[in-house]
Amino acid sequence: MRSIIFADYLARDTMRLSPTIDVEYSHVRFLGNLHLHLWDCGGQDDFYRNYLENMRDHIFRSVELLIYVFDIESEEEGSDFAQFAEVLEALEQHSPDARVYVLVHKMDLVKEELRDDVFEERQASILELAGRLRVACFATSIWDETLYRAWSEIVYSLVPNTHMLETHLTDFCRACGADEVVLFESTTFLVIGHAAQNPHPDAHRFEKISNIIKQFKLSCRKAQAQFEGMLVQTNTLTALFAILSKNTTIMVVASDPLIHEAALNCNIADLRNRMNLK
């Protein structure tokens, strides 16, 4: 999961990866000056005792958010929840203000007609254990857009000044007559901002677009080419992807046939100047 989001792996490539052993630490620079410190803790039972007894203070102190993954395939549900309860206890002791995001993972292995019921049942059990901690749950799979949706919401919660960002995007959307504007982080292509003139029926469109563009970027890299933007035009819309800053990519969607690519690029340049982006 971490490799797909932060290391540009495709889902099929993760089959070659071995399970996490003990604690793997990595540092990711995000949006230029935002630093994510990732502690990937192995889920094997032998290591839980080490986390909770010998490394409790080190791992759970000063935590901004914790991401906990449940394997829906697990046949030891009782043990899984007991371990989760111990983790929440340690978190509440050392970082009571931390946010908790729970990913109920590998949902693709559940029959489609049963997925909603299975997830809601698991979510109810998780929230019952949460106590005073702030907990949000997501059903995820590496094989569809659900993983990107979850991580977009997680990272969005860490981005400072989101209200100001959304205001700039809303003003920009109205000024250039666009139907919708979406801001992506350039490396992960996670969504970090959005504005729209009208509601859209597909609530998962951002994650689908993220997945498509990220795979296209990987294809560019294999061809030793640099992704600098993309223009998609049909009879009914124009969708322009352009680099807004060294850390962000913007997508502008317009259905008005009188709005041309050149005008959108001029507006993007103006937005870049107003937001003091480089």
Automatic annotation (TrEMBL):
Belongs to the GTR/RAG GTP-binding protein family. GO terms for biological process: cellular response to starvation; negative regulation of autophagy; positive regulation of TORC1 signaling. GO terms for molecular function: GTP binding; GTPase activity. Keywords: GTP-binding, Nucleotide-binding. This is GTP-binding protein. The keyword GTP-binding applies. InterPro entries: Gtr1_RagA, P-loop_NTPase, RagA/B. GO terms for cellular component: Gtr1-Gtr2 GTPase complex; lysosome; nucleus. The keyword Glycoprotein does not apply. It comes from Chrysophaeum taylorii.
